[in-house]
Every structure is written in C-alpha cells, then in structure tokens.
Amino acid sequence: MSAAYKRVLIKISGEALMGGLASGIDPATLHRTAVQIKTAAVDLGVQVAVVVGGGNIWRGATASQTGMDRATADYAGMLATVINALALQDAIEQVGADVRTQTAIPVPQVAEPYIRRRAIRHLEKGRVVLFAAGTGNPFMTTDTAAALRAIEIDAEVLLMTKNRVDGVYDADPLKDPNARRFTTLTYMDAISRRLEVMDSTALSLCMENELPIVVFDVASPDGIVRAVRGEEIGTRVAGGASALEPAAR
Prior knowledge:
This protein has 249 residues and is an alpha/beta fold. The protein has a domain at 7-166 and 212-224: Acetylglutamate kinase-like (Carbamate kinase), CATH 3.40.1160. It has helices at residues 27-43, 60-65, 70-94, 116-124, 142-152, 187-192, 200-208, 223-229; strands spanning 7-12, 47-52, 99-103, 112-113, 128-132, 157-162, 168-169, 181-182, 184-186, 213-217, 235-238. Helix 1 packs across helix 3 and helix 1 packs parallel to helix 8 (223-229). The radius of gyration is 17 Å and the shape is globular. The mean pLDDT is 92.
C-alpha cells in the first residue's frame, strides 16, 4: 500500500519514548519507533521530519513550579530534547536510514543548526530530519515547535504521537473508564472544548495554516506507518463542519 503523503512531520513526545519506564528512554520503544520511521522514509518514500520532546528527562514548567527561573528551566528542557534526538538519531541509523539532527540552539559538536532550506534539502535527498531544542525560545512548548516546523517545511500533515492514549477523548481515558474517543474533530471543536490535542498556541498555528493533525498512540502496532498511509487511526483534527460525536470506545 502506498503512502498518502509526500512530506510529514511527526511529533514524538519525550513521554512516548519512556515505554513502561517511569523516566528515561525505553530501548525497545526507541527501536520500534526507529523501525517505523525507517519504513515510512525508506520503504514508502515519504519525506519524514521529526520534532522530539524532552518530558521523559526534564519538564521546564514543572521545575519552575519548585522555584527555578522559568526561562532557565525551559532552556534545560531544550537540552533534554537534544539528548532524545541523539538517541533517536542513532536508533534510526542502526536500522538503515540516513538522518540529520538540527537544533534551534547551537550545539555544533553534535548537530547542525536549524536552517530551513538545509532541512528541506535533506528531506528532498531522502534523509530523516530530527528537529531538537524546540523553537529555541523559553515559554514555547515542543507542540508549538512541531506546528511551526511543519508549516515551515510545507509538511502535509502533523502526526502527533501520544503515550498510552490512542487519540483525543471527551475526558481523560486514563482516569475515566467511560471516556469516548473522537474519530474526527475541527480545530474550533478542539479549542472550544479545551480538548487535549496540543497547546492552544500550536493548535491555533495549525488552524491558521490549515495543517491537519492526526493524534494516535505511539505504541499502536505500526501506528506511524498506518498514519503515513492515510489509514484511519486515532483522531484526525482538521477544518470543516463540526462533528462532535465521540466514537464508542
């Protein structure tokens, strides 16, 4: 089955790399994610970019609540995303795909600086491109970085992977056993209902630029590959008429 998109951006949260661990990186989850990215980029011929989060190592917002300066805490979080990107870079290389890591803050010993035209050129040459360090600015989440980078590189869709949640629900499915998943949502549905898609800045960016979002569980069997193929998976957020009707769980 062929791919539904030519160029995609995948947002992988730090929590999605934990697997069943309490923190850090689960090697099995990292390998499984790398294999799926390689399948999409090499076997299906899709141009794949990835934004990596850092919540499995450090959360700036949480650190700031304990008294740490918020900007300093956020910069530490950016460095955590670099660690995750380097781990993912190595895993992708080990399964046989070419990859480049670009960072929004200078770390020249380990990665390239983020340069939009260079990133696009890498993608055109069939290389996976990993974007680390968020936007390079404190107070901005990696969700916002994902939306921004996707728009900058002209991605056709933003694929949002979650940890242990297979889409967008009308309540927290980890706390409410009666929570029901939406199969489709409009941007305004998600904003007005304050649904857990991504932060409001990122969601507004996607809405203003008509960038569709697909939200699914990173642990879903072949989830990334299925999403790239355009199969029905998780929840799709896009424009159009409102259809706020959750699917049966």
